[in-house]
Amino acid sequence: MSGITVTPTDTELQEQATLLRESHPALGVGKLLAQLKIDHPDWSVSEKRFKKFVSVTSSAGSDATNVNVNANGNGNGDTIGLTSTSTSVSQSKSTGDDALIAKTGIDHSIDVSKIAPKVKVKMFNVDGKGKGLVAKEKLQMGELLWQEDPWIVTNDASLWPYLSSHEMCTQCLTLFPQPNPPLSVMCTYCREAHFCNRLCYSKASSSSSSSSGAGCSSSAHNDFLCPGQNPGCSALLSFIHQKKARDLDGVARIIASWKREREYGDEKLAKEIERRVWGSLARVSQKAKEEERREWPFISKDRMEEWRLTHLLILRALNPSPMDEGYKPFQKFLNSKRKSKTTQPLSNEEEERWFSFESFLELLGLIGLNQESSGGLYALHSHLNHSCEPNVQVRNLPKGWIAPTPSELPAELPPPMTAQTRGTNRISMIVKKTIHPGDELTISYVDQRLSRDERRTKLREQYGFWCACQRCIKEKKAEDAEAQTKAKATA
Ligand SMILES: [Zn+2]
Ligand SMILES: [Zn+2]
Ligand SMILES: [Zn+2]
């Protein structure tokens, strides 16, 4: 910091005040101003001026706010006060439509201006739509907005054979040109996970606060999920593999990544993960979501059994009780990792928050709403809302891809990847068509080649909302017009 201060414009201040109010509904003006000074250390704002912009009444005092799921980002719920953890999220009957309700909020751990300087977070707060990303300036086709590594790695089951045969890096998913290439390393504990080099190994397993906002390690090979360090996880891992259950894998990794930081990592990171998971990312109980499926009465027994079993396996692997078999080795594993500090035992609230069955179902729902197929959970990417006519493309580009320079814009989009040029799990956000300042950035959660009905049904089933994007509206009008013409012709 140079120490130079600037006076924000009314618009800038209004926006930040709204953001802060949304994410801290219960805080007073003084505390919000303190947070504003943390977020914008270079701003000079008096309390009197700030008061004018921050609404005191809006949602003050409310609990975690529930809003309709509209893609990834909505409303707020930065209430890590441990009061509403197990509130089950259910269908909204009162709003007239039958949208599922999710809890979400702002993620203050992400420095958006650093990761994506031309983009900012916006709270929409209309029609159940919460946060999203908008352009700060004009963006041109082919422009790279930002690149991001997953903060929770989950892989498509089709890649698992490559990983177990040591043909691919567990962290970044680079295919090795030959078995055991020079510089590559294996996990020293289990000899099962293989990495491009030491850097990939350390990103996968240890915390690094350097950060692209992701803070913690990627959990691609979390210590708690390494059979060499925690033999108790083997049963869980083989169940996940046998079921090819990527979502369950994701849940285990989220809990393991929090637990790792909480037990012997960085306490600040543990808090950050806690806030991101329970205060920011859109989440909804998986059970509430699946209860809406027409076939639920026929599958409920099997689904519940599978969930109960996975939950039990997670408890045994990640939070065993002294009565459990294998508890001693687990403790030894933890102790060997501890350096000086003594670990505070988990509080009852923490146990409830992370290890109850209800929480498990919410984490499972969270994975369903936020997981990007190419690699897991991404901190900033998960802010992007859906459109069937998106203006941003998410790409997995090969290592060494070079973004067009400003003078080369507008540019063609990168060509589709082939087996030889397959990318890593680092995602690149590329502008698909001209975007004007203030326009929302959107991606498509579903295959755009599907028909209107197919897209909308998929979005409803998987993400809980009925799409009403420009394209859906246009196509509906065209369909209606066609039906009318037909009706007239037959009349
Ligand atoms: Zn290992
Ligand atoms: Zn790698
Ligand atoms: Zn649509």
TrEMBL record:
InterPro entries: SET_dom, SET_dom_sf. One of its GO terms (molecular function) is histone H4K20 methyltransferase activity. One of its GO terms (biological process) is methylation. It comes from the Eukaryota. This is Histone-lysine N-methyltransferase SET5. Residues 117-446 form the SET domain. Pfam families: SET.
